[in-house]
Design the sequence.
């Protein structure tokens, strides 16, 4: 099976600090791939390079065989890449539906004339977008909250809305950055279930940074481990969990 996303020798240097060095792995279509590592391992820098927020110092990122190393962030949505962030990035004064519609902006936009008159293609795109929003709302089990202002919702529900907005891009690959950080046990379980459903029901590949090892080991098909910017392991969860280098990175040398 050819890779959906390929990371090839990816490195990033900030001044004299080597944040990421020579990271290399593949994400297969329809799989859940986790990137883990202790604090300061370079995970977020790696994600920022993959999502075109930071330019690599060396190496390449390929999506469906296309080099996206020099792409701009807004171009990734059109290619089929969605992302959430560790810190909430929702529009807190807008409703749930309005937040999800923002995720479809690249698919709705027309000309000033057609959009202003709400006529023809613009009207059809708007109707299709709202239909898609309702499908996402139902998928994430937030039908009863569709018209609620997002800032009034609990933290866990706001994260669910952010996940929905990333799904609104209609991605082939979803980048999830610490989705369950700050959540209670019930909220964490819900998000883990939705991530599995995204893979199994929607057929979307997931690349995620995660600190919760229970989730990583339970739902991941493959795990890549970073430590001090270097890749120290890559493989199935059970293999990675038993790797002495991984145990040393998390627990320290005996």
Sequence:
């Amino acid at each position: 099976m050819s890779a959906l996303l390929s990371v090839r020798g990816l490195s990033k240097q900030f001044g004299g600090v080597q944040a990421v060095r020579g990271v290399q792995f593949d994400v297969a279509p329809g799989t859940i791939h986790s990137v883990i590592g202790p604090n300061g391992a370079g995970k977020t820098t790696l994600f920022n390079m993959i999502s075109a927020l930071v330019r690599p110092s060396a190496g390449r990122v390929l999506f469906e065989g296309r080099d996206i190393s020099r792409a701009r962030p807004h171009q990734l949505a059109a290619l089929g890449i969605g992302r959430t962030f560790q810190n909430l990035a929702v529009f807190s004064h807008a409703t749930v539906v309005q937040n999800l519609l923002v995720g479809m902006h690249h698919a709705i936009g027309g000309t000033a004339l057609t959009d202003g008159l709400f006529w023809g293609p613009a009207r059809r795109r708007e109707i299709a977008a709202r239909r898609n929003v309702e499908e996402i709302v139902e998928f994430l089990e937030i039908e009863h909250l569709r018209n609620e202002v997002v800032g009034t919702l609990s933290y866990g529900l706001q994260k669910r809305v952010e996940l929905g907005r990333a799904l609104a891009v209609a991605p082939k690959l979803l980048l999830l950055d610490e989705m369950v950080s700050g959540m209670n046990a019930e909220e964490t379980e819900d998000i883990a279930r939705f991530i599995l459903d995204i893979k199994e029901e929607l057929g979307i590949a997931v690349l995620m940074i995660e600190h919760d090892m229970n989730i990583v080991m339970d739902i991941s098909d493959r795990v890549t481990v970073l430590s001090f910017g270097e890749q120290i392991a890559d493989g199935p969860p059970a293999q990675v969990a038993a790797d002495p280098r991984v145990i040393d990175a998390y627990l320290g040398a005996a």
